[in-house]
Amino acid sequence: MNELNWRKSTYTEKYNCVEVAMTPETTAVRDSKDPDGGILAFNIRRWHSFLSAIKADHYR
Q1: How many helices and strands, by DSSP H and E, does the chain display?
Q2: Residue 30: exposed, middle, or buried by beta-carbon count in 10 A (0-12, 13-18, 19+)?
Q3: CA distances from 28 to 16, 31, 40, 57, 60 (A)
Q4: First vs last C-alpha separation in the chain
Q5: pLDDT band at 23 (very low <50, low <70, confident <90, very high)
Q6: In DSSP terms, which residues pair with 43 in a beta bridge?
Q7: Rounded to a whole number, what is the largest CA-CA distance in the chain?
Q8: What pLDDT digit, counting tens, does each position of 31-50 carry?
Q9: Mean pLDDT of the chain
């Protein structure tokens, strides 16, 4: 997954944060402080469910 286009939120400015990269089937997540470390990969359906739960404030 090294060929992915990694991006992070513009809200982080210069600070470290998580980065995400998307393919048609998968969303990958990594720690920007350790870009060569582990990657979490989620299928698109699970990723969208996760985002919906965050938007609905289920994790507070």
Answers
A1: 1, 3
A2: buried
A3: 17, 11, 6, 22, 23
A4: 31
A5: very high
A6: 26
A7: 34
A8: 998 989 999 999 999 999 99
A9: 89
Quote the DSSP letter at residue 7. B
pLDDT exceeds cutoff 60 at 2:
no
Q: Nearest to residue 8, comparing CAs of 32, 26, 24, 41?
A: 32
Encoded tokens for 39: 């990657």
Q: What is the Cα–Cα distance from 3 to 7, expressed in whole angstroms?
A: 13
Write out the DSSP string of 1-60: -TTS--B--GGGTTS--EEEEE-SSEEEEEETT-TTS--EEEEHHHHHHHHHHHHTTTT-
Which neighbouring-strand residues pair with 20?
A: 7, 29
